[in-house]
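Blinded run. Sample ID left blank on purpose so nobody reads anything into the name before looking at the predicted structure. Input follows.
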Amino acid sequence: MSKFGELISTDVPVLLNFFTEWNEDSVSMHEILRDVAAALGDNAKVIKINVDKNQELSDALRIKGLPTLIIYKNAEMKWRQSGIQDSNALITLLNQFA
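Blinded prediction complete.
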């Protein structure tokens, strides 16, 4: 979990996507997140976290619905939402925290 602390302790917003390969909504977010990452470049980080491989972290953050998206900046949670999100909405949100 110390690596998680390093991931979220940046001065650019970090969008975490908690997903599984067997969840259809999670898989459909992959392309949207690629678009978000490409649009924002170095102004934000987009990180995918497979809940099946990171059970301890998922439990600690009480991840229930998939996909779950969380934005952190300077180790502080700024936004959290479960379900499919639109790329333009995510870009707008991340720009607010940039």
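Unblinding after everyone has recorded impressions. Strands lie at 14-19, 45-50, 68-73, 76-82.
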